[in-house]
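Q: Please design a sequence for this.
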């Protein structure tokens, strides 16, 4: 009997892997769950640090944004979050060492050298001889309003400029809408969209002799600092609008007054907290309204008003009470 080596054959069967049944789908599901939880805790965090009004603004911003808009781009943000009265790094990128300001983030007014009279030359429509260089009446201001309305449509700002003829002159309301905010929340820095708007309005308004009053308005939400109120904020914003207009070519002499109105004159009286109430108004005065305002604040203008005022003053002086000492002396 031959003794041959025994050959042992081992058969190994490949064990089925757990992933073969469903692949890597569990990893995708877990990633979706992690993202959902992160978004959930982000919402809880925002609800904890924001007020009710700020939550409404965030909701409106998300509802009106389209898929083509980057709502998280800091240059498009209305800055609804308040960091205890201090600007966050996103609200004040100028102080950030990593910030490199792009030319596309600046307005045309910022890109134009300020203080140069030639900067406004050739800009804006040329008014006809009936309007240019004159003190416009109410009828002529109506013609001017029509031209400004066409300019607003060309700038895609029809929702941001409201023109109204009133007995005192031409009332120009410049206000926010759901897509554009004139100022960052609680600040006075004007956004490029509105700077370009004033940059185009200034040379047109500078072609007439009517003087104007610029007033700043806020909503009824109290300011979050004790040493700074809505009066201060509305006044600072009105002064900022004046500065942009003058830098854009409006003669300094065309501005008669800059006023702070806070929340005293809301446009939307049913909702004093509405964003429509946050606005800048420019009142282009008629000759009569200009004279009345000058009489109200200027003594010299009152004294120069002719014989009627002089006669009234003489009558008042002749009928003032006289003491016995005055009689004995005289």
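A: Design:
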């Amino acid at each position: 009997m031959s003794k041959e080596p025994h050959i042992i054959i081992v058969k190994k069967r490949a064990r089925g892997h757990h992933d073969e049944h469903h692949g890597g789908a569990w990893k995708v599901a877990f990633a979706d769950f992690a993202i959902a939880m992160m978004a959930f805790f982000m919402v809880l965090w925002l609800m904890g640090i924001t007020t009710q009004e700020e939550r409404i603004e965030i909701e409106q911003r998300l509802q009106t944004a389209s898929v083509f808009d980057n709502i998280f781009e800091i240059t498009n943000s209305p800055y609804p979050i308040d960091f205890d009265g201090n600007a966050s790094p996103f609200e004040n990128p100028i102080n950030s060492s990593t910030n490199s300001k792009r030319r596309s983030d600046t307005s045309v007014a910022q890109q134009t050298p300020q203080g140069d009279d030639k900067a406004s030359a050739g800009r804006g429509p040329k008014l006809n001889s009936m309007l240019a260089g004159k003190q416009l009446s109410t009828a002529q201001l109506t013609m001017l309003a029509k031209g400004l309305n066409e300019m607003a449509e060309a700038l895609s700002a029809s929702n941001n400029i409201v023109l109204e003829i009133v007995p005192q002159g031409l009332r120009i309301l410049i206000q926010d809408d759901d897509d554009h905010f004139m100022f960052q929340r609680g600040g006075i820095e004007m956004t490029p969209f509105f700077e370009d708007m004033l940059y185009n309005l200034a040379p047109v308004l500078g072609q007439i002799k009517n003087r104007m009053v610029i007033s700043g308005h806020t909503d009824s939400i109290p300011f979050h600092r004790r040493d700074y109120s809505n009066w201060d904020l509305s006044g600072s914003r009105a002064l900022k609008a004046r500065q942009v207009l003058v830098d854009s070519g409006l003669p300094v002499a065309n501005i008669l007054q800059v006023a702070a109105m806070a929340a005293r004159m809301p446009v939307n009286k049913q909702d004093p907290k509405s964003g429509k109430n946050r606005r800048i108004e420019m009142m282009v005065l008629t000759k009569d309204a200009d004279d009345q305002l000058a009489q109200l604040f200027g003594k010299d203008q009152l004294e120069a008003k002719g014989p009627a005022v002089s006669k009234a003053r003489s009558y008042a002086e002749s009928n003032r009470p006289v003491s016995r000492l005055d009689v004995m002396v005289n």
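Q: Thanks. Anything notable?
A: Strands lie at 161-166, 169-175, 212-217, 255-260, 279-285. Confidence is low (pLDDT under 50) at residues 67-104.
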